Amino acid sequence: HGFTLIIPAVFTIICMILSFYFLALALKNLPLGTAYAIWTGIGTIGTCIFGVILFKEPVSALKFVCIGLIITCITGLKLITN
Asked: Residue 72: inside a domain, yes or no?
């Protein structure tokens, strides 16, 4: 329905504002490339989880493996920036 439903639209806008706020906080301690990679990875994982929970998207072992790889890469990026 896009942004035609008020509650989901307001929720989305609030989440976007919070997301950019937390990215700005991360940029105080992390290089831009690392912070952006982590930010997009977390967004991807969140989108997958919401898709499964809210829209009943199919869950497969391969999806869990891919999400695990994203988490591993995010952790690796954080570790090598210290």
From this structure: yes
